[in-house]
From TrEMBL:
Assigned keywords, A-Z: Signal
GO molecular function terms noted in the UniProt entry: copper ion binding; primary methylamine oxidase activity; quinone binding
Positions of region (Disordered): 35-119
Organismal lineage: Bacteria, Bacillati, Actinomycetota, Actinomycetes, Kitasatosporales
Biased composition (Basic and acidic residues): 70-95
Superkingdom as given in the UniProt entry: Bacteria
Protein name as catalogued: Tat pathway signal sequence domain protein
Keyword Signal in record: yes
InterPro entries from the UniProt entry: Cu_amine_oxidase_N-reg
Length: 271
């Protein structure tokens, strides 16, 4: 019997402790801001003494917060540091083709290839143990003049181009600029009437350009993804984009069945 009483008493005490813990958590959240001041009670239920003046009391509101400037970024990172802003600019400048700019075209048809990505390049096995290895960047472009995917590796330490490659039929993920241009073409096309109407239904305003939309593009590779009827047969060799479309601070509009051929600047519908 003595043993059983100890067991039951232990369970009761444990249950009370859990209940008390929960109550304490609630009290900690719901206590008024003047709890513990004169006229209140301390945690044991006894009257609490008036708070004594001390450092920081009754001295008015705290001073406003101060936003510190970010640390000054150097021109050059070290080791595997991310590329600095200066290195990003230098890498793109070094990687741009030295042929006349008119020989390449970006997504809007202007001179120069469309910039895609600039990333820190991997080290060679012999360089991995060096205290200060060379800084390299891999820069990619898309040239709409001949639908080629350009990749260049530039050495930022020596300011030289170490390798260059151009391939056709390779379709990396689109840049934000390409997604925006695809939306612009879709809005202006006859097939974009549904998008324009959905936008008007959602906002009460006319849609005349991509600025009020948040768009994300993903590549459509044509026959590599299945049936590619009619105008979609060139996708994969051409730069073709589909879109996720959303009204900024508003609802989604389904545009996934539209394919925008950025190379031919045409719009088609799947299915």
């Amino acid at each position: 019997m003595h043993h059983l009483m100890h067991r039951h008493l232990g369970k009761a005490v444990a249950g009370a402790a859990i209940a008390l813990t929960g109550t304490a958590a609630m009290v900690a959240v719901t206590l008024p801001s003047d709890a513990g001041a004169a006229g209140g009670t301390d945690p044991r239920g006894r009257p609490a003494a008036a708070a004594a003046p001390g450092p920081g009391r009754d001295q008015g509101p705290p001073p406003p917060g101060v936003v510190e400037r970010p640390p000054v970024e150097g021109e050059r990172g070290r080791g595997r540091d991310p590329l600095t802003d200066d290195e990003l600019r230098r890498a793109r400048d070094l990687a741009l083709p030295r042929t006349p700019r008119g020989a390449a075209r970006n997504v809007t048809g202007r001179p120069g290839p469309e910039p895609l990505t600039t990333d820190l390049a991997e080290l060679t096995p012999a360089e991995t143990g060096l205290a200060d290895p060379p800084r390299r960047a891999t820069v990619t472009f898309y040239d709409y003049r001949d639908d080629s995917y350009l990749t260049k590796t530039v050495n930022l330490t020596t300011s030289t181009v170490e390798s260059a490659d151009a391939r056709h039929g390779v379709q990396p993920p689109p840049s934000r600029a390409e997604a925006v241009e695809a939306a612009r073409l879709l809005i202006a096309a006859p097939l974009g009437s549904g998008l324009r109407q959905d936008y008007r239904d959602a906002t009460g305003r006319d849609l005349t350009g991509p600025d009020p939309l948040s768009v994300t593009g993903f590549v459509y590779r044509g026959r590599a993804e299945g049936d590619a009827p009619g105008a979609l047969g060139d996708c994969g060799e051409h730069r073709c984009i589909r879109l996720f479309t959303k009204v900024k601070n508003g609802r989604w509009i389904d545009t996934r069945r539209f394919v925008i051929d950025l190379s031919a600047r045409t719009v088609a519908h799947l299915g």
